[in-house]
TrEMBL record:
GO terms for biological process: negative regulation of DNA-templated transcription. It comes from Pristionchus mayeri. GO terms for molecular function: chromatin binding; histone binding. MBT repeats lie at residues 83-179. This is Uncharacterized protein. The lineage of its organism: Eukaryota, Metazoa, Ecdysozoa, Nematoda, Chromadorea.
């Protein structure tokens, strides 16, 4: 079996400003070469759709967010408890993409540990910043940018090409942005 239109899964929406949630998603169309057109479930699914390869690290099985304590955004921008996959699927008759369609990693596969320092490209995709692994959520890492508020945290696949060891920027001549200094009110 392979991907089919109207299969559902969870996705990391690379176009969204909030980079710490997963979204309920549906396959709109299966394209040649292993590509899929999918979008976050909701009234703007076609407008908000993207094309990705079926092996993309932004795709997750139904239930991944719940299993790893990640907020799941449902069809109308509702979060967590508002989206019950079972009743959602009963009302819409969509198929769940089989679990074996997705890359899964055991914690032992992930070469990072909570508290580990590294350098990461930020959400704007252009600045290299000192960062810290705040949590490991399956194959996703919750990364905090040193000195920045929690609202700027970002989820990365552990295989991301946007994560680097400390010293990488200096070694290759890429500027490392300094951490945002904490203010006296931050430490009180």
């Amino acid at each position: 079996a392979d991907w089919q239109a109207d299969m559902v899964c969870e996705m990391f929406d690379i176009l969204d400003q909030c980079q710490t949630v997963l979204k309920a998603a549906r396959i709109i169309k299966v394209l040649p070469g292993g590509f899929l057109q999918l979008g976050p479930e909701g009234p703007d699914i076609v407008t908000d759709s993207i094309h990705v390869h079926k092996s993309s690290p932004i795709l997750f099985p139904v239930g991944y967010a719940k299993e790893h304590s990640i907020t799941l955004q449902g069809p109308k921008g509702e979060y967590d408890e508002a989206l019950d996959w079972e009743s959602f699927l009963r009302r819409r008759h969509y198929k769940v993409a089989p679990y074996h369609f997705f890359h899964e990693a055991r914690e032992s596969d992930v070469p990072y540990k909570v508290g580990m320092h590294l350098e990461a490209i930020d959400q704007n995709g252009k600045f290299l910043r000192p960062s810290t692994v705040k949590a490991i959520k399956g194959r996703l890492l919750l990364i905090g940018f040193d000195g920045w508020e929690e609202k700027y945290d970002h989820l990365y696949d552990y295989r991301s090409d946007q994560l680097f060891p400390c010293g990488w920027g200096e070694m290759v001549g890429h500027a490392l942005q300094p951490p945002v200094p904490s203010t006296p009110s931050d430490s009180e």
